[in-house]
Amino acid sequence: MTNGAQILVRTLLSEGVGTIFGYPGGVVLPLYDELYDAPIRHILVRHEQAAIHAADGYARASGKVGVCLATSGPGACNLVSGLATAYMDSVPVVALTGQVPTALLGNDAFQESDITGITLPITKHNYLVQDVSELQRVIKEAFYIAGTGRKGPVLIDLPKDILTTEVTSDEPITEINLRGYRPCYEGHKRQIDRAADLIAASRRPVIYAGGGVISSDASEQLCEFVEKTQIPVTATLMGLGAIPSKNPLFLGMLGMHGTRTANYAITESDLLIAIGVRFDDRVTGKISEFAPKAKIIHIDIDPAEIGKNKLVDLPIVGDAGSVLSGLIEKVTGVIGEEGWRNQIQEWKTRYPLTIPDDGKLHPQFVIKTLSTILNGGGIIVTEVGQNQMWAAQHYEFTRPRQWISSGGLGTMGYGFPAGMGAHVACPNEPVFVIAGDGSFQMNIQELGTVAQYHIPVKIAIINNQYLGMVRQWQELFYEKRYSYTELPDVDFVGIAKAYGIPGMRVTEPAGVRPALEEALATEGPYLIDFRVEREENVFPMVPAGCAICEMIGERHPHDEEGS
Amino acid sequence: MRSHILSVLVENRSGVLSRVSGLFSRRGFNIESLAVGPCEEDDLSRITIVVKGDDAHIEQVKKQLNKLIDVVTVRDITYQNYVERELALIKVQAEPGEPRSGVIQIADLFRAKIIDVGRNSVILEVTGDSEKIDAIENLLYEFGISELVRTGRIALQRCEKSGNGK
């Protein structure tokens, strides 16, 4: 005889699950009893939101499916923003939630919430298990759906009696048959031929690479394609690391806080090769003026992304890596005019991202120094806002999956718990969480988790005592009326100390490197409170509704004489 | 903007209907009619959805429908050659005498059936395309319709008529 909880644990093990991030509660007691001596590591977080963000960070860092567990009602509801985060960024996560016994479903029982109903639009799929005989199949399907095609979160709701019901036999299921789910990996041959023709004929091509390149592990193919064709590349926030930042053909990030070079290149290009991207409004600005002179090739595994925001000339539905391999075979060599590459190098020289050198502590300098110390390595996990944009702009990435950030949903409070998950996935990599003082306080309770499990994440708080990005918008577009964006001084080092975590406050540029080195040299978690220039802005910036070539800020002194 | 008819084959499982209708509501589409029931395969259901929208928006909804794990196929038969029917039950005032014979006459004209007779009213059953139902509804209006229910449109693509591709 075997019960539902045992089937669940056994199936998780067969899916290769090594760690679960979770929080117990009434209806999941039978499962927790089973986990007590199961060969699965369980990390007890301090809030269920952290459990799902940690599972998400684990998935982004490793490429494998992350798993989290919460009880019914409030526990399940606390997963909501994390599920939406993973859904927007196509991250493979399986969320297990407890539910009241099937006999009480719909009766407003204690700690009941209709979590499958609530999460319908923010999961790739979800299940309410109503018969223990379905349990193994559902778990298998959930992992398959989460980790294939366009990846995403899947939730399994488990009524308490499902976990306790005994069944006599439970043969392992090996085959999954979902007639409504057949992701297409191979690009259409004729479309790839047509794309190769368009590419061969182009004079000013640009590659616009996104999160799809990372999640399909297609960086190698992208770099090979770039190497062969010498086509310049820009990346979205989600695509950072797809190509090393130091590659001379890399233009930096594009979009609202992209580089001038990237945004100008898109605007002047005659062929845009969009790979694993979704033409998000933060990238395109005014969509009608995005890449106005270009023909567009759009490669994506999700047919629904084709033509969703922007009409394209040539769609290829398929896996980024597989399609790129096809294209590498078809293209003959260097593509585009020499003058185009020269123009791009000229922009790069004329419009570098700058850091003020005035003896004050600027946030960009913190990122730059970290990048130098780690030599572009490690795993960089961010919160959301100015801290995130400075990290994206100034860190020099060397490989995919080292950059972990909430892109689509922009979830404050994501970074710190995601950093815990990233460490579990890659225990030998240094993990730095770049946080704002606002974001950090959204999941600050996880100091308890990293202390308990001695998770060596290094927390760098870019502390300006503001909700900085909102303050920036208020400064630029609301006449400096700082409505509810100022935060009081907090002794973060003192808080860390209370949890037994060492830390340091830094107020001078000279203190940045020693502090980062101290953090790295310290075993276990470490917190640095960087007291930065309070009203520093993220530039360049494309104001909302403008074309991406209409940037403000970051004008180089030579700018005026140039044109 | 025109009405599109989508024929959607789905797994017959709980929650499927809310998944499908949710895709429309979150995009601000108002579904004109939705009919769901068993189809040629035991464990599948066919949903016929009539929704107004421009072609690009409908195209996007179709793709989103296709992404649902429980959706097996989606066909937009708007521009195909199709047959459609709708069924309506209409309870109409029909006192014995002149009103009742008037109602019976209209029912005959529309080949509607009288499926229930009471002291002062009758229930008509009528099938046809939506325009036909609208027409009988209009004519019966002056007699006094006390209750009315329509199934929503159901549709199938027409059969192939010849073997030479025409």
Throw out a few tags for this protein.
heterodimer, A: 563 residues, alpha/beta, Rossmann fold, 3 domains, 6-stranded parallel sheet, 24 helices, 20 strands, 37% helix, globular, disordered C terminus, B: 166 residues, alpha+beta, Alpha-Beta Plaits, 5-stranded antiparallel sheet, 4-stranded antiparallel sheet, 4 helices, 42% strand
CATH architecture of the largest domain in chain A: 3-Layer(aba) Sandwich
The end-to-end distance of chain B, rounded to whole angstroms, is 29 Å
* Cα shape of chain B: elongated
CATH T-level topology of the largest domain in chain A: Rossmann fold
Strand content of chain B: 35-45%
Give a short summary of the structure.
The complex is a heterodimer of chains A (563) and B (166). Chain A is built from 24 helices and 20 strands.
General description of the model:
- The complex is a heterodimer of chains A (563) and B (166).
- Chain A has 563 residues and is an alpha/beta fold.
- Chain A folds into three domains: 166 residues, Rossmann fold, CATH 3.40.50.970; 162 residues, Rossmann fold; 169 residues, 3-Layer(aba) Sandwich (Rossmann fold).
- Helices cover 37% and strands 16% of the residues of chain A.
- Chain A has a six-stranded parallel β-sheet, sandwiched between helices.
- In chain A, helix 23 links the parallel strand 19 and strand 20.
- Chain B has two domains: 79 residues, Alpha-Beta Plaits, CATH 3.30.70; 73 residues, Alpha-Beta Plaits.
- Chain B has four helices and nine strands, in the order E-H-E-E-H-E-E-H-E-E-H-E-E.
- In chain B, the strands form two sheets. In chain B, strands 5, 6, 7, 8 and 9 form a five-stranded antiparallel β-sheet that branches. In chain B, strands 2-3-1-4 form a four-stranded antiparallel β-sheet, with helices on one face.
- The interface between A and B is medium-sized, with 18 and 20 residues.
